[in-house]
């Protein structure tokens, strides 16, 4: 049952009080005070419960005015609306009462219907104002709610026409994981921490709004802006203790047109962040017009992907891996290509990141694995020489707890020996969420699959982590090799990593070998295998089969 609103009735005239009780007590709970002192005491103790004050302005011969003035000094009570009652129609007194903060005036004789309506209107007004006040700030982080943020941004921009502002969108990649792994309370704690870090970093006249979940918007004065302040937020986050790598990304939009709706400005900052590409050094993306084009292309790719699988537009290319000493083929990597009837040949570098974002990668990967297993099965059947083919396993696939079973069922479906399907898992997948990744990869390894660590040298995994991972093969990323090969200290790094890998009993594959010098250099360093244009580009299955006929094949493991 709804509780009745409470009205504090301040009147020294008993007849007045009983008339008002008669009119109002059906709808309201009336608390009486026959003196100003009594009223103030009640207010001091129960202000929060009182919805409205009905005050006889002429109490004790005009003390009503003193009460109105006094009320403004009681913090808890200053927002309670006051309706004053008077006997005479004295404009000066009424005006004075209104100036002192009274909301409305009722002149005697009391007309019940009018009094009831006015009181109801006044209470409703107060409640709406309180609600608006409540949502001005987001309850979790204490930051502005988005409605209020956009309103404030508009005010700031309009009242500082000469100044330029930026809107920054901040977001945590894979925040959902925090909730899933550690629970909502931990997720909320993290959001509160981020809210506080942003507030501590931005200037007095800058604003921050929380748009739900892990979405934050910040208004920054462009004169004050530098990437350092964003780095400061990131640094604070780095000190936050949680056993998962939390990465924050930022999209920035510079406001050029102050008539542009704030919602659109915020959208553009968000779009800038959405087009972020997996470069681990940068975490800020700026909006520019190329982003719009990129998004259109992304949209087109997303619209075409389902049909592309049905129509077998995805084809598998194979890039052989060579033994650096004997120069024979020891295996190959399967790399997907998209031959679109209209857009032509699309590179995985373009569509894989989009599929990783929209989740379609799992479907495509499964399709690729299935095609590869089918191919291996056909070689088994025709008595073709066999070698392990490695397929790429996206980090997204690793979030599926059924992945080990899925892979196992696949090799069984085609009855192929498990050692012929290798799995390449990128190094950065392990740094994202080490524990969960290691657990699932361990499970896959236990079934009997050989795991290759892909792109080593790009993901900042610690070297001592290598010994904890169930991997057999380390693939050195081509950028890792290129960045190090030119300097003698860099060459020592390569040598060290190769030695360490050997010491741990791992085979080493160098990626992106393009010249004979590189091949000789790697062989001298003790690297086992190489893959790259120097030996062969990725080729389609029939060219790959031809290549195998012309090259020696030796079994890797
Ligand atoms: P990756 O797994 O590191 O694959 C190696 C990439 O290097 C391939 O690019 C390959 O064509 C290229 N490459 C090989 N040798 C050389 C060389 O000597 N020089 C240069 N400059 N490049 C060389 P590609 O085929 O464009 O694939 C790009 C990335 O897309 C792959 O990188 C992999 O991360 C991803 N990818 C490809 N196919 C699949 C797939 O079926 N599933 C998943 N999840 N990812 C895939
Ligand atoms: Ca790979
Ligand atoms: Ca690679």
What's the topology here?
Blueprint: E1 6-10, H1 14-24, E2 29-33, H2 36-46, E3 50-56, H3 63-71, E4 82-86, H4 91-99, E5 104-107, H5 112-136, E6 144-145, H6 146-159, E7 165-172, H7 175-182, H8 184-201, E8 207-210, E9 215-221, H9 227-238, E10 248-254, H10 262-274, E11 284-286, H11 289-310, E12 314-323, E13 329-340, E14 344-346, H12 348-358, H13 361-382, E15 389-393, H14 403-413, E16 421-426, H15 427-432, H16 434-447, E17 450-456, E18 473-476, H17 478-485, H18 488-503, E19 507-511, H19 516-525, E20 529-531, E21 539-540, H20 541-550
Parallel strand pairs: 1-2, 1-3, 3-4, 4-5, 6-8, 10-11, 13-15, 15-16, 16-17, 17-18, 18-19, 19-20
Antiparallel strand pairs: 7-9, 7-10, 8-9, 12-13, 12-20, 12-21, 13-14
Helix pairs in contact: 7-8, 8-9, 14-16, 17-18
The structure holds ligand C2E and calcium ion (2 copies).
Characteristics:
557 residues, alpha/beta, eight-stranded mixed β-barrel, six-stranded mixed beta sheet, 20 helices, 21 strands, elongated, binds ligand C2E, binds calcium ion
What can you tell me about this protein's structure?
The strands form 3 sheets. An 8-stranded mixed beta barrel has the order 12-13-15-16-17-18-19-20, surrounded by 6 helices. Strands 6-8-9-7-10-11 form a 6-stranded mixed sheet, with helices on both faces. The protein has a 5-stranded parallel sheet with strand order 2-1-3-4-5, sandwiched between helices. The longest helix is centred in the N-terminal third of the chain and has 25 residues, at about 110-135. The protein has 20 helices and 21 strands. It is of the alpha/beta class and about 550 residues long. Helix content is about 45%, strand content about 20%. The model has no long low-confidence stretch (mean pLDDT about 90). Helix 8 (about 185-200) runs antiparallel to helix 9 and helix 14 runs parallel beside helix 16 (about 435-445). The relative contact order is 0.06. One calcium ion binds near residues 454, 455, 475 and 511.
